[in-house]
Amino acid sequence: xxxxxxxxxxxxxxxxxxxxxxxxxxxxxxxxxxxxxxxxxxxxxxxxxxxxxxxxxxxxxxxxxxxxxxxxxxxxxxxxxxxxxxxxxxxxxxxxxxxxxxxxxxxxxxxxxxxxxxxxxxxxxxxxxxxxxxxxxxxxxxxxxxxxxxxxxxxxxxxxxxxxxxxxxxxxxxxxxxxxxxxxxxxxxxxxxxxxxxxxxxxxxxxxxxxxxxxxxxxxxxxxxxxxxxxxxxxxxxxxxxxxxxxxxxxxxxxxxxxxxxxxxxxxxxxxxxxxxxxxxxxxxxxxxxxxxxxxxxxxxxxxxxxxxxxxxxxxxxxxxxxxxxxxxxxxxxxxxxxxxxxxxxxxxxxxxxxxxxxxxxxxxxxxxxxxxxxxxxxxxxxxxxxxxxxxxxxxxxxxxxxxxxxxxxxxxxxxxxxxxxxxxxxxxxxxxxxxxxxxxxxxxxxxxxxxxxxxxxxxxxxxxxxxxxxxxxxxxxxxxxxxxxxxxxxxxxxxxxxxxxxxx
Amino acid sequence: xxxxxxxxxxxxxxxxxxxxxxxxxxxxxxxxxxxxxxxxxxxxxxxxxxxxxxxxxxxxxxxxxxxxxxxxxxxxxxxxxxxxxxxxxxxxxxxxxxxxxxxxxxxxxxxxxxxxxxxxxxxxxxxxxxxxxxxxxxxxxxxxxxxxxxxxxxxxxxxxxxxxxxxxxxxxxxxxxxxxxxxxxxxxxxxxxxxxxxxxxxxxxxxxxxxxxxxxxxxxxxxxxxxxxxxxxxxxxxxxxxxxxxxxxxxxxxxxxxxxxxxxxxxxxxxxxxxxxxxxxxxxxxxxxxxxxxxxxxxxxxxxxxxxxxxxxxxxxxxxxxxxxxxxxxxxxxxxxxxxxxxxxxxxxxxxxxxxxxxxxxxxxxxxxxxxxxxxxxxxxxxxxxxxxxxxxxxxxxxxxxxxxxxxxxxxxxxxxxxxxxxxxxxxxxxxxxxxxxxxxxxxxxxxxxxxxxxxxxx
Lengths: 505, 459
Prior knowledge:
Shape of chain A: globular
Largest sheet of chain B: 10 strands, mixed
Shape of chain B: globular
Largest sheet of chain A: 7 strands, mixed
Largest interface: A-B, 92 and 100 residues
Oligomer: heterodimer
Radius of gyration of chain B: 24 Å
Helix content of chain B: 10-25%
């Protein structure tokens, strides 16, 4: 995958020398395991408002970390001074932390075995690295988009944002694995704001283009038609501002991938993280109702439901060659025929569950978002598979007598065991007798995860499948942020509770 | 090789730019943490980082480049990148004269530090707490974090400012071995001298004891006491949503229908005062603006502007919104930049939280809120969930534990509807305290009709 070479500026950094001295120092203490991770993560964020540049910031996060297992306890230390003396000092700090931790580590940590990968290299798939494009070109593009919108009737203001990331990592461990990687991703959006001329109500309408593991070509029309979408936004916003408020009650929903990806993320992606199910996130992000004792028996959703975990899909935001424990990327089933059959794992969890899961091997879900953070189990690209001969979205809408068609994401919230959720969206259309009859306002849908997925009565075909995703998935203490993609088709859900958000105050 | 000091890095950055003016921000951070789950330590570590931001200014253009840096070559690279970016930039809308000034007295002081030793007493006690929990068939999950970030701000106008910011917090969740209930305690600290793992465990034991009786209640509106932690959870959203520009442009709850902000309007109960004060005892925050990039609520040109006590709501009236010099000119209001702490006070409140509970005949006492997100900016309707302990209050006493709920409420509306309040105490937002905003002081509030929109099965 990917034909690019590792950024020469990264390749010139002294990571191999630092790794050698740090790992050698760890070996002096007879550790059970030691790994060294060197990262350079480049960020650029450009924001515009009403045709003018609002802010442009470049950030370059560069440093390294040493993690050790000593007498069954983890020790971790990180630094930014790129000298061999400092690499030794950081290694010794990690050893010291493990010694402090040992008396309070009541269950020794062990790692599932993993083959050694001898100096492998992997690069994600893209055409033009966005960091090779002049800032002026980016500002011109985004400012032009917002200028076009505020020139349209009914649009008072418009804001745009572009986030770009280039992530380089070098991983080395005492077993002998050496992996060097490069990933590129970006997230664009434009949002128009308007006010109804008589009611005074205000609202907004945002582009649906998802973040992607692609390069600058994504913004220039090669993979998403931004021009066409921008042209529709003023009219969609005007219709939304004039739309009637929804009547609260129970409705059948047809949910477009631009909204359903986020429901998958919250109610399946996080629920099938084994660290959550085992309590390791109980004080922060929470646990999961989908506990390991239910593996193979929990009827998660309807029999139409086939969900995969995948760290290999091209252009996925969580796609890698090797994870942050040196495990090669994989794809596997999480839910098959509606039944829970798998979890997301790192090496310590894979060991603790033995051969029950993935033959006792990690499925490559360890990730740290910065050189100063410890790798934890993070989400693979978790996707709902389409029905091979399924209908298109119109065909799904045709199956609904009285319902609502949901497009685009907006507000999201779910409890700490992933049962009760509430989502809104960009646009909600009333469905009457299989036909759309205009937008509705003030809509939120609320459900329990298993009730919702068991109510899925139809799944769209491959022609409806889209890869959505997020740049900002939060987890862990100290907090870490990860990017992840979720593919899905359009789908039909029966009898879902709809709130009128205006009636909630 | 000796490490270059943060002050040296700042001066080196200012010595080499080709742009007309330059601002340099150096953050030196030392951090340490311990994390535990299932009565055993899990991940833990120590970190040291040095982040340098170079803001190049050329006529009406600005550009900001930040990166990890510890030697002159790396700083020179950052300056070169910023200089290149500013030549490439379009005119900034918030352009303004840079703040003038000289070197502060503490400019030459070394950065503050912390390390794993800050937890020495706490860690020993935590080991004892694990043993007690095992003996009582209870499970502990938690996290402690301490960092010291020293910020050095220097500009080509001669301004040299330094601020040392310790930030610490603790949080611990306890469950019985059968996972049938959950309780949480947590708080903020500057140095961990005032945090005891044994005291933390005792408080959890009390709360888990309340779970001896379990009651299922349906969704509905309940007479509810929100403790200071839950009030902090909600007030931070009210504060973050108080951007002047967005309000002025008609896109927030602080917007006046037809245009402009609601500054001056009576928005909430007349006893309410919401303010920030960089010198508030125990919640001390940076007394000057530090912004590496411009946004709706920040401007790089404002770096170094002094910050002082600022009322956001006074006597129930909207008094100010988050203003840069740019937005202040736009809205015709005073310059009131964001400050990194928040205090809510209710005039005349004398009770403590337990006295508020004693006044409830049939209602609920929450612990904290979670996964709070904005549903409707026009009303600032928020949704979220109760977490780790909702308690039934009958006849003024806690009589059992209740299932969790999803709520839909507006913090602005709650400040209009509450019927009783306690005195203001240091608090800690469960939702936002860990990573974003830990310096809050809030009262408990009693809200007679808090909207529990649906039941959550989560334990």
